[in-house]
Amino acid sequence: MHNELVSIDFRPGTGRALAFGWRRMKANALLFFLVALVVAVIEIPSQSQNYNFTSEDPVKSIHSLLLLAFMILIAPVFNYGADFVFLKGVRGDDVLIKSILDGFKCYLNVVLSNILTFGLTAIGLVAFIFPGIYIACRLVFTAYLVMDEDMDPVAAVEASWRMTQGHALKIFLLGVLSIFIFFGGLLLLVIGVFPALMWIKSSFAALYLSIQQESAPTDTHEASEQE
User: Fold this and answer.
1) How many other β-carbons are positioned within 10 Å of the β-carbon of residue 76?
2) Region 196-204 average pLDDT
3) pLDDT for res 19
4) Residue 152: left (phi > 0), alpha (psi -120 to 50), or beta?
5) 84, 89, 95, 159: least surrounded by Cβ within 10 Å?
6) Using an 8 Å Cβ cutoff, are 136 and 70 in contact?
7) Phi-psi region of 5 (alpha: psi -120 to 50; beta: other; left: phi over 0)
8) Which DSSP symbol is given to 47?
9) What is the value of pTM for the model shown?
């Protein structure tokens, strides 16, 4: 699919990201809808409540292990790939549906990044809920950095932390609004979940691109100073 070049000429902000994400969602409606369908299918196993590792029935134990392995080793690849498709579509790049499989090209980085971000967020949630939410906001761009910048897990987490400095509140507000958008989609006879998911993912990609553009001159200046 060939997209027109777009200009990310807005300052980082929750409302601006939602507005830009909405426009780019409409421009890539069919592609984003198909990706949203894939994401929905991939997420089905995560809704299972059949985890039972101590069951006397070996079939149930094996089922639980396979389900856990799927959620750790396979689902993140498709989720990262979906984020990459949305990012490219919002940015105006040439993008094909097969890009959802690009996570397999950097498989180890994807899986380890997912484990690292989950672990850091979980530690924050266990220690106290608010630190966990804050960490999640600061690491929200890790998937984009792994897929688009080909960073390893540690570098991607560190880069996301730097990028989101001063933007945590915007990300948090976008996350809260995303919850309302999602449940609003549920009220529209369930089928509205897909446009809701498309809008949410487009908006986060738009916010990432606006923050990336804002921080680019600083990054370039720092790199030239190091040279």
Assistant:
1) 23
2) 97
3) 96
4) beta
5) 159
6) no
7) beta
8) G
9) 0.88
Measured distance CA(175)–CA(178) in Å, rounded: 5
Place of tokens 């809808």: 33
In degrees rounded to 5, what are phi and psi of residue 138? -75, -25
d(CA 106, CA 76): 12
pLDDT computed for residue 209 by the predictor = 97
The residue length of the chain stands at 227
Helix, strand, coil proportions of the chain in percent (round to 5)? Answer: 80, 0, 20
Q: Are 201 and 175 in contact (CB under 8 A)?
A: no
In a domain, residue 2? The reply is: no
Residues 6 or more apart whose CB falls under 8 angstroms from that of 165 comprise 138
Residue type, 59: V
Region for 92 from its dihedrals, namely left if φ exceeds 0, alpha if ψ lies in -120 to 50, beta otherwise? left
Residue range 75-129, pLDDT digits in tens: 999 999 999 999 999 999 999 999 999 999 999 999 999 999 999 999 999 888 8
Nearest to 182 by CA among 204, 198, 205: 198
Task: Tell whether 114 is covered by a domain.
Answer: yes
Quote the distance between the C-alpha of residue 96 and its chain's center: 18
Q: How many domains does the chain have?
A: 1
Per the domain annotation, does 93 fall within a domain? yes
Which residues form the domain of 45?
14-215
In a domain, 80, yes or no: yes
